Amino acid sequence: MKILLINDYGFPEGGVESYIESLKKILEKKGHKVKIFTSNSHPELRHFNDYEYQFINTKSIFRFIPYIFNINSYFSLKKVLKEFKPDVIHLHYIFYHTSPSVLLLLKDIPTIMTLHAHEIIAPMGITINKMCKHSIIGYCPICVGIPNYIIEKFKRFIFHILSNNIDIYITPSNYYMDLHERYGLTNIQKVFNGINLFNYYKLYNDHCIVYAGRLTPGKGVQVLIKSIPLILKIVPDLKVYIIGSGPYYKELFLMAKNLRITNSVYFINKVERQELSTYYRKANVVIIPSIWTETFGLVGVEAMSTGRPVIGSRIGGIPEWLDDGKTGFLVDPGNSEQIAEKVIQLLSDRNLLEQMGKNARRKAKQFSIEKHVVEMEKVYTRVIEKYKI
Q: Of 310, 313, 271, which is closest to residue 292 (Cα–Cα)?
């Protein structure tokens, strides 16, 4: 079949983009024709798209216009549909550069959408704030600001009008499916995310822990940093690699400096996926300290595929792949003491560390990209058949 994947970004921005690249490769190996349609944002970076449209400067005061209706993406996609003639379209992130406007073109084309984030039910994302008493899934002019509130409210209104052109929504976890169903979304199917398994590595003797991901408050890196002085009291030769980039870097670095742990903590800028595996190889334990609701947590499963136990927050979709006490430990979100306790427990017990690492590897195999693609093929076929009736 001919499959068109659509996303805002066509460069390795994060887990979604890594997933899209992997999905295309496996689908093509199985004989399908696959093309990717994205913006040309950040042309200085390596792009993996086949088709692209001109992105709008997000720093412009008029950025809200293309977020609602992007003329560039609309007419570019119209041309792509005429040229490529896809059997099915698979939407990913479309709420910014691409915009909901492209849904106007998809009325008579089998279309699915993977829900990677919370934009449908919370256009500003999950907001962690102390000013408002509403659910963290909600948002209001106080917590997001009046201009953002108006823009995103209108964008969501437009999306819901056009969303009838989406046949099936895919969620990567049971948590995420339940969450969207509670907010009234129907025609949802769960398909666990898939990863390219890394090689399995034997454990080093070094006492090393790793975090990999965006540096934002919701990712909870500050919680990990606060745990480090507690761990150092028992494990003085501890090494901590914090890998990633983001707006919270300066605050995190200053926090480490104030805690006088900079000799033990190494901040590494964002790296390509293959280089990331070298840091997993150095690690004894990988930490996922999120305080916001992760939809799934691909990084954790990737780490487990190398044979590393994971300590992750008991939140969102993380408990669906992290077996507490078997492949690692679950901790309460925001609890630095629990992270320290579990790290010390693992680094002090070599047998437990090795056994959990082996369990983690076995568990990760359940989420291979190959198994994921088999399930996605079933979804594609079901949607295409619907249009033949």
A: 313
